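BUG: 3D viewer hangs when loading the predicted structure for this chain

Environment: internal workstation, default settings.
Expected: structure renders.
Actual: progress bar stalls at 90%.

Input used:
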Amino acid sequence: MIRHKLTLCQIQDKHKQRNGVLRLADATISPSVTLGAKIADQLRCRIVSGTLAKGEVISENQLAREFGTSRSPVREALRELAHEGVIELARMGAIVKGLDAGDVQELYDVRFLIERFAFSRVAAQSDDVRSALCIELTQMVDKMELAVRHGNHVEFAAWDLRFHERVVGAAGHKRLWHMWGEIREIVHATLAVVTERRLERCPDDMSGSLEQHRELVKALVVGDEDLVQAVVQRHLEETKSLVETLFGLS
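Structure tokens produced before the viewer hung:
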């Protein structure tokens, strides 16, 4: 049973009191980040959620006033978001491009390529290595479940991201890790927004996501590469479908 539920805005306000801006990963994943990265996190979440709509103009000066900083960290944030393709830089600011159905499809195309390879590579590792990793992954799913009980979508998204990121890292492939880094923050923001909407709509709906993550762990324990790939594909296809539905793109 959910004891309390924080909306994205409430969590942002809570974190503003502490350090000025919200970092979705917070200390759980990213203990030290720049102010520009923190600003980028908030803007990214607003863009993904639609709070900042496609075509909307973002002013450097306005953002600097909002976050109580100089324009330098704001420019850093805008450059990061432009690199991710969600805004287009303009004079003294940027124009929001947002995420459309094509962007979501491409995001999950890349996730599938990365994670299918990573999970398969991990499945081929020794029993001892897989066993140790699966203990870690199980603990992460437990933390995700605890976050659901508390209605905390920020914590859920952080541990969800860390779960998948841990497997990508365990694959021991530098180029793959670099590819993951290119989509990491968009994946994280999408997870946070989707989780918030799912918790608002029906908290019990999260049980399916938790079970899918436990199935991924079970497949790794067995070490069957074909089974692992099938479970990864099913999980990502269902997640993509959910994103499209909740974002009104289907």
